[in-house]
Task: inverse folding
């Protein structure tokens, strides 16, 4: 059995890939490919990072769960790992796919050998896979992700991916298979199609469902509104997810799509230029894997490694992204209008008839009873 260990990296369509692999898990299993399901998460294998991130910081999703119950961590890891082993025994696949972007930042040197040996207990044939995104695009996407659960984000800085990749290469004694995450470079322009084409040859998947709704992009204007929402409602609770934040984000997304106000976010040109040309790891990627991103002047990389002090103070979305204040206000006002304007299920003719008899004592009594019942059982 061959194990494909997909390390992410974050913001390279990983969630879309995992959701599709999960949806097609039965179809994959019939073709000798196992994408196991585990109890700790519906579509991914973040539990694998527990072993490598217990001391260095758990993934944001799991941090609140284990903060007051650290003993649960080992229990849940053992449970999920036993579920994987049981599915391997049941299906006897030729290929096992394990995927978690949380592994990408899991670099505990002391725990590494134990993690490696655990995987090798299933099979010594292990391949490391990671998709790498253009630094400025990764940074913008990371801000989007951070604002889901935080009012803050890291200021513009070079992106470090070489150290993370080399950790796993040293640990497993082999070179990782790296792919540039660029839709023009992906098979059929799709992350799942590309993954299957490159690493699961001969495997077929059914066509994806339309509008999967995975990690939808917000405009820069909605990003700034979401940041202010977190600053006001959860000022000291960064990197924790609250239902209100989720609902507000969904409302913003719906508003800007339905009203045509959505514009794909863009970094300020000087911010994007700095991030791209300060990331010297791109030279390593070019020289060792022959991966080159278009539009980057590789001759400037060594010259742009100095820190930009003026970027350290970037704390607001407007500091790093191009933003239209008028569009921002329109999105906010329309979102508020949607929240306060409830769609009526009463047919227009009946609604007009009720309005013409608003003072009728019998109708007023019925309204009073309905109001009392609604108030009694409302949460």
Result:
């Amino acid at each position: 059995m061959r194990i494909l260990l997909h390390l992410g990296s974050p913001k390279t369509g990983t969630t879309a890939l995992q959701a599709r692999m999960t949806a097609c898990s039965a179809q994959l299993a019939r073709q000798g490919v196992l994408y196991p399901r585990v109890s700790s998460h519906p579509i991914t294998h973040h539990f694998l990072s527990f072993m490598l991130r217990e001391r260095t910081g758990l993934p944001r999703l799991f941090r609140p769960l284990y903060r007051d119950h650290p003993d649960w961590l080992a229990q849940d890891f053992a449970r999920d790992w036993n579920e994987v082993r049981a599915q391997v025994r049941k299906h006897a696949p030729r290929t096992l796919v394990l995927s978690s972007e949380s592994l990408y930042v899991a670099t505990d040197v002391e725990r590494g050998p134990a993690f490696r040996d655990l995987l090798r207990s299933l099979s010594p044939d292990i391949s490391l896979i990671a998709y790498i995104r253009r630094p400025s695009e990764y940074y913008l996407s990371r801000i989007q992700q951070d604002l889901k659960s935080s009012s803050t984000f890291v200021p513009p800085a070079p992106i470090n991916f070489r150290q993370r990749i080399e950790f796993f290469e040293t640990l497993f004694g082999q070179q990782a298979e790296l792919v540039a995450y660029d839709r023009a470079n992906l098979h059929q322009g799709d992350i799942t199609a590309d993954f299957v084409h490159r690493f699961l040859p001969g495997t077929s998947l059914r066509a994806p469902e339309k509008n999967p709704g995975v990690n939808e992009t917000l405009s820069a204007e909605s990003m700034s509104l979401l940041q202010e929402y977190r600053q006001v409602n959860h000022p000291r609770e960064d990197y924790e997810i609250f239902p209100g934040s989720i609902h507000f984000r969904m409302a913003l997304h719906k508003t800007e799509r339905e009203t045509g106000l959505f514009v794909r976010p863009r970094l300020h040109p000087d911010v994007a230029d700095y991030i791209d040309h300060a990331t010297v790891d791109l030279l390593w990627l070019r020289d060792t894997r022959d991966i080159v991103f278009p539009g980057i002047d590789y001759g400037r990389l060594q010259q742009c490694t100095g820190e930009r002090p003026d970027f350290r103070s970037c704390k607001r979305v407007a500091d790093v992204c191009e933003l239209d204040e008028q569009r921002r206000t329109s999105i906010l006002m329309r979102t508020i209008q949607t929240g306060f304007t409830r769609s009526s299920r009463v047919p227009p003719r009946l609604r007009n008839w009720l309005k013409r008899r608003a003072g009728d004592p019998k109708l007023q009594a019925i309204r009073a009873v309905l109001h009392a019942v609604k108030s009694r059982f409302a949460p």
The mean pLDDT is 88. The longest strand covers residues 125-133. Strands lie at 2-6, 33-34, 95-99, 125-133, 177-181. Residues 348-377 form one domain.
